[in-house]
Amino acid sequence: MQALRVDRRFFAVGFLVWAAIIFWSASQPGSGQPQAFTGLDKIQHFIAYGMLAFLLAKAMTSHFSWKSMLVIVMAVVLLGVCDELYQATIANRTSSISDVVADGVGAVAGFLAAWRWQLYKNMKRKQ
User: Fold this and answer.
1) Per-residue pLDDT reduced to its tens digit, 23-67
2) Tally of CA atoms within 13 A in the half-sphere of 12 that contains its CB
3) CB contact at 8 A, 66 and 92
4) pTM of the full predicted structure?
């Protein structure tokens, strides 16, 4: 039981640090230069918010269900919406609904990755 608490604390701290990094990144003025290829920012959003959902899922639950998925994904998407609204106030930055969609898809993928990891850990424990 003690290991579970330490494990969850580790992921909770990771979630807070990762969220701070995301919002720090959103605070940086844009370069105004076009990206190397179209869609790079969507990949970045997918990865960043997927990791955020993964960390939150590992911090919040050891029992994965549709309800926990809904709560965690909605919380992460809400953070993505706040990030986009904040970015609209930063020089040379724009906000985009497609970024929020990428955040949401990443959040679902991150939650599913956490769920799969938990299944793997449970399977190894039973062996």
Assistant:
1) 999 888 876 666 666 788 899 999 999 999 999 999 998 788 889
2) 9
3) no
4) 0.87
Judge contact between 108 and 44, C-beta under 8 A: no
Contacts for 75 with CB less than 8 Å, ≥ 6 apart: 56
Distance between CA atoms of residues 45 and 107, nearest Å = 10
Separation CA 84–CA 101 (nearest Å) = 11
What b-and-e string marks burial along 34-49, b requiring 16 or more CB atoms within 10 Å of the CB? eeeeeeeebebbbebb
Q: What is the pLDDT of residues 66-123, one digit of tens each?
A: 899 999 999 999 999 999 999 989 888 888 999 999 999 999 999 999 999 988 888 8
